[in-house]
Amino acid sequence: MKKIIALLSIFVIGISLYACQKPEDKNQIKIGAIVELTGSIPAVGASSRNAAEMAVKQVNEQGGILVNGQKMPVKLIVVDNAAQADQSAAAAQKLITSDKVVAIVGPNASLGAIPASEVAEAAKTVLITPWSTNPKATLDAQTGQPKHYVFRACFTDPFEGKVLSRFAYDQMKYRRAAVLYDVGSEAPTSQALLFKQDFEKRGGKIVAFETYSTNDKDFSAQLTKIKASNPDVIFLPAYYNDVPLVAQQAKRLGITTPLLGSDAWSSPELIKLSNGAVEGYYFANHYSPDAKTPATMKFVADYQQLYGQKPDDVAALTYDAFQVLFQAIAEAGNLDRQAIRDSIVNMPELEGVTGKIKYNPNSGDPVKSAVIMQIKDNQFTWVANESP
Amino acid sequence: MIYFLQQSLNAIQLGSIYALIALGYSLVYGILRLFNFAHADIFMAGAFVGLFAAVNLHFGFLPSLGLGMLGAAALAVLVEQLAYRPLRKAPKVSMLITALACGLVIEHLVLIKNPYPQYVPSLVPNYLWTVGGVSFSSLQLLIIGISLVLMLALDWQSRHTLLGLAQRAIANNSQELTLIGVPLNRVIMYTFALSGALAGAAGVMYSQSYPVIDPYMGVSLGWKAFVSAVVGGIGNIRGAMLGGFILGGFEIYMVAFFPSSYRDFAAFSLLVLFLIFRPRGLFGRMAVDKV
Q1: Which residue, A249, A281, A248, A245, is CA-closest to A266?
Q2: pLDDT tens digits along A355-379
Q3: Looking at beta carbons, which residues of chain A come within 8 Å of B13?
Q4: Is B210–A228 a contact, with Cβ atoms under 8 angstroms apart?
Q5: Which of A10, A122, A285, B108 is most deeply packed, by most CB within 10 A?
Q6: Which pTM was predicted?
Q7: Residue B290 has pLDDT above 50, yes or no
Q8: Which positions in chain B touch A269 (Cβ < 8 Å)?
Q9: Helix-strand-coil split of chain B, %, nearest 5
């Protein structure tokens, strides 16, 4: 009997604690962020979380967002997905069902963004992925039609593959290209395929099309093969932890052919880990911290003051994702998930950190511009803008 | 031909790393009949000790290598003392699961300190020679050279020293050896130290040639080395070395002459084929299980 009473009292205390929490929640706008804090790309996750916290801090300093005629502060709930597909889906599920967020920002890598977007779509909750460039993130897996509740703040792989192939063929006058990519990773795979397609369409020749698996460190066999095919350029759409290894092994095999990279190169870690091996190479990116638009300059200054480092593209895109969301909530004027979704597609062009962002009613992919960067004196330097 | 020679050089370099790690699996299996799955993470820890020596203590290549070997050997002995020794009389599967757990513990201990991939500064002057179209670097030669020296030393050790004799004796029959005065615990401890030192050496050299390291670096490499040990005949020292070179060559030539995505598929298929058709490997003896 005593045991039952003890259990009951624990239960009652639990309920009352839970109930105590409730009213407080009522006056908050809860937004979830799924980021890669651990796992293979923790620098991406850390940047994303920093930008998310800064965006929320800034909006709260202005008193929050006007909802139902009352200014409400934003509460950010950050969840780590360990850069894993299954943990991303679980994180989205938890944020939607148990934390009851009004919308989710993240995950960043396509590997996690695609499964999480399926969960958000099924639960009719807005999810904005800042960094996932894979077309599948915003497309329904069964029908191939655009998802209704999933958006991205960045451009897509087809666009990036095309930009890079156009740059390689038209600007750099390369005619023979080799491709090396991680066959176990979504975004690099689709970038490699689309680069190949577009480069061949322009009249170029793909002389080697080689793969490796995630976590491989030895690329000597592939690079020797590529060297024998005698290319003008090696397209390497790889994450910042693989690029330094490839670049240094290539140098050691006597390869002098330049590498060409994707947006996944854009972490400052790339330069730290490469020890000069990537000097002079080009890659595509979502934004440049050197851009002279008011939104970018303010963002870069604020971020630098808060965290003591230049924001990378993940940070900029995460920040933009939050601006889109804040504006959508303000325009909806309430916390109805459907209303928030509708106000994103009807939103006028937003002056974001990464350029102008505008959504179409029938797509989660924004219309926006990309930049070509070069690594010069161990710095990312802006080279050219490529419009959509 | 040049292409073939260049790829062969790649294969020897990769193979010597596999062989060094595979030796550790084989040594421990020889005396304890245990697949020491923590071994891959001891290799990783060795690489991080080498990094610490290079960055914090400003050591050169050989002192870093030495400290990496020492650190990994100490860790291997520690794991044996803390985790395996109490379980020596328990069913084999308990020790196997403990080994997996120890590996994860080491991984996550290192992860706490180093969540980001780390750059390993180059400790070997980088010269590049091209002879008849084949490029090779100072580092490559050094890695292959040191690996061969270590392997020959180990081979000699197992044939010409008392410790080696005791190891081979235990491999034959550990039940009655204590009766004739073989200090079982000490031999086991030395064996773990040896396997750890080899893994540490592999770790430091590996991190010089693939200079971005993270706590998960041992995972896939550990499996490859395990395949090497099985292919060579687990428990057999020469077998483990040969297995390492066979697997290294198999992987490199697979990529060299077929689409590169077949690499891992081929490597692990080799394991399956050996387990089906020649489970004792190339050099292993038939295991006589007295149940």
Answers
A1: A281
A2: 878 898 888 888 887 788 999 998 8
A3: 220
A4: no
A5: A285
A6: 0.75
A7: no
A8: 116-117
A9: 75, 5, 20
